[in-house]
Specification:
Blueprint: E1 2-6, H1 13-18, H2 22-34, E2 38-43, H3 53-56, E3 60-63, H4 64-68, H5 73-80, H6 83-86, H7 88-93, E4 96-99, H8 105-115, E5 118-123, H9 127-134, H10 138-141, H11 144-163, E6 166-169, H12 172-182, E7 189-191, E8 212-216, H13 225-232, E9 239-243, H14 249-259, E10 262-267, H15 274-278, E11 283-284
Parallel strand pairs: 1-2, 1-4, 2-3, 4-5, 5-6, 6-7, 8-9, 8-11, 9-10
GO molecular function: glycosyltransferase activity
Protein name: Glycosyl transferase family 1 domain-containing protein
InterPro entries: Glyco_trans_1, Glycosyltransferase_grp1
Length: 289
Amino acid sequence: MKVLLIFTFNTSLEHWDKRGIISREISLYKNILEKEHEVYFLTYDDKKDFQFSELLNGIKVILALKSIRSSNRRIILIKSFILPILLRKIFKKIDIIKTNQLEGSWVAWIGKIIFRKKLIVRGGFEWLKFYILHNITAKNKKNLKYWIKYFWIYIVELISYKLADTIILTNPIDIEFIVRTFKLKKKKIKLIYNFIDTNHFKPQNIKKKEKHVLFIGRFTLQKNLFNLLEAFEDLKGFSLDLIGDGPYKRNLLEKAEEYGINLNFLGVLPNNLIPSVLNQYDIFILPSF
């Protein structure tokens, strides 16, 4: 069996590496290799992703930008719709096409339509619901750009879900959302939670930090960090340590200074170092909505 993983639009192995998640993300596909199947990654890169060949240990990398030949995001977006044709030799020999997220899934369902392949649509988060939550204010919803992007995401997801042979989502709330929004039947939807390797993430005999609270994740609105800071204002003597990065880092720092909170940015850490850091804390918090 040959499996092709379509990366999230404009995402590469190098992006995974910078976010510290590359070893975790590829571990599932290494398990597929061990069962004597073939795995291909379609990434949005032109050459840098080849540097991870040793880590991939047999997973074959197909570079989308080598076929598209552009660094302009809009051109990449437009040309991505013909990627299955440009890479038809690969798509013809594949048995199963799988998405990593919904953004970029059009490459997968176009490949399914042209080459009649099985399609697994997987979403680590529900793209349309995520977009709505990020633009929840009435002001945003009066903006024409909001509705243009809303209908773009809706159409992409509608086609993806309708054409999928199997849909995988990571929480029951997202499943209820797509069943209600897209009028889907649950029989082809599977709930598979994001996994934790318990051989790696386990208790260690490490000295704890007193009155320190740890958060790990992206600094985005969905993670609800501003409400967390507001709650921390009343916790005198406690420190909040953040692992990760994101567009709201500066805003978080400014808000922490306003509230008088001891906020520490620990940077982005590789997944294999997270267990030893987690074990230094008595309190871990994940305030996402």
